[in-house]
Each structure stands twice: as C-alpha cells, then as structure tokens.
Design brief:
alpha+beta, three-stranded antiparallel sheet, globular
Length: 342
Amino acid sequence: MRKIDRRTFLRISGILGIGIATFSLPSLRRIESERFDKKNYKISCTRLGMGTFISMTIIDPSRHKAEEAIGKAFERIKELSDELNRFNSISAVYELNSSGSIKEVPPHMGELIRKSLGYYRMTEGCFDITVKPIIDLFQEKFSKGLYPEEREIEERLRLVGSDKIALSGKKIFFKEKGMGITLDGIAKGYIVDRAAEVLERYGIENYLINAGGDIRVKGEKSRGRPWRIAIQDPEKRGNYPDVICMKEGAIATSGNYEIYFDREKLFFHIIDPRTGRSPLTDISVSVVSKTACDADALSTAVFVMKPEEGIRFINSLPKREAFIITRERRRLKSAGWNRLKA
C-alpha cells in the first residue's frame, strides 16, 4: 500500500509496456465513455492508487449514472487507502505501529484486523499481518546493499505472531514491544470490495475492477459473454498461463515478481511467518473466491504453503479455487479450476 513514487511508476510502466512519451499522469483520471451497443455504454477509467494501476469498466444503459458511480468508487478507494496505509503518518495503522496500542480503532481498520486474525487461525499461521518487523529488516539491509543475517532474522522473528495482538472492543495493543502490522496482504482486496459496494449501490449490474491483479467482477462484458480474466504471466512476456471466465466473484494473484529486494528474488514482500524468510516453492498463486478480500488473503497464505498442501487446503474450502505455478514451472489446479476456464 506504499504511495507510488516516480521510480516505481517508471518501473510499473515498463512492466506493463506503457509508452511514457505518450502517457501522461493527468490522463489517468479521465473517465472514458463510448456507445457499446444499442442499449449500453461502456464507461472506463484507470488511476494510480495503492501502489499500482486501478482500472474500472462498467457496461450500463445510463452513461451519467455510470460515470458518477466510477467517480464515487475511486473516492472510496482513496479514503480507505489513506486510512489503512501504514506509511501514512496520520493513519491509525501508523499510530499502532509507532505506539503499540490504540484506544479507539477506526471501524474499517478494526474489521480488517478481525478478518486477518480469522485468516491467521484458518491457515494455522500461514497468513499473518505481524510480519512487518521482518519486512523492515529486509528493507533496511538491502537499502545498504547487505543481506540479512540469520541472527537478525531470528531476533525479529520473536516479534511475529498474530496471537500477540490483543483486540477488545475498540481497543488494540501489541503484547511485545517492537511489533508491527502490515495489511498489504489483505487491504487491497478489502478496498476493492468496498469500491464494488459503491457501484452496486448505484445499481450497476455489469462491472470489472482490477487493482493490480486483485479483480472483482459482476454481470457480463457483453450479452451472454462473461468477463474473461487472464492469469498474470510471472515472466511478464504476455504468455498467459491460463484464462478463466467469471460472471460474479473475485480473483487475486500473489507472486514473487511483485515487490522483491534482490535480483535472485530470494527475498520479497511475502514472508513465511514461521521462518522469517520468503517462501521459495512457488512463483505465482491465484485464488478465486466470492470476495477480493478473501481471495487476497488466501492467495498470500497458499503462497506460504507447499504447493500440494496449498491445493489440499483450497479443496477443503467451499466455493474457492486455486492455480499455482511453482519455481520448476509445474502447474497445480484445485478440483474445480477447469470449470472456470474460457
């Protein structure tokens, strides 16, 4: 959820193949509308937020209503991004990480932490928002051109564990001094879901929201045709590993190619809470679920698990599917994944 700087923007632009010379930042905010068929308009907009590109597409008979809905949905994203951003010095998350306690937790932050604690229990610790001390260590060492030492990792690891979070009513505090949380593995999906709620309050029945791979859809792209979702190519060469069709629900992908600290991608933003190191079995995990929040958290958790363990875990959950690409380029699918294929 880091605010995007110029270097990050240029890197993302290069990954996505955007021509910088013809792509200005102000153009990101423009809402584009065009007649789609005899009854509907296609309204779309792309903006920067949550450290990535966020795109929304609506198919609706009312151009004015759809444009207003997209504008309000982006406003909601901005509000929640600021509230849940651990780098924002006026956010409650920043305050918690700085002081170790908060007496009045804001509603969305409280809801998200409660959800996170639920995923911590569900995944037997594979999803854990208290890995911030490890991520901070990686950033500190690699910014100086150094690798973290085993002793340093072990010292930070004693601060990891969501069972060390005490949450009672509106009050929250850490049981160990020096702890910290990062909501990066769940907040983006949660915010996408809140944006979807805005669209649905406007009566929008056909939409797609894509926030850097956290995708939420409803309805159809055109009459009788569902939305087609391509699984991100981990090597960024456009060779999509698979394409699925969705009329309602969400998909999120976690990968070692998103934010990494070393050229070999041995240290990146996903941390195994049990070892204090980045898991090295997979390069990409995609999870389909009813909500983007659920898909986001589960894709992070499954990435931490061994591939076969992750597939068994997803198969044990109702109405979820998963697609895993390992470092050896093996592809594993959950029991019902092929039913989603285009």
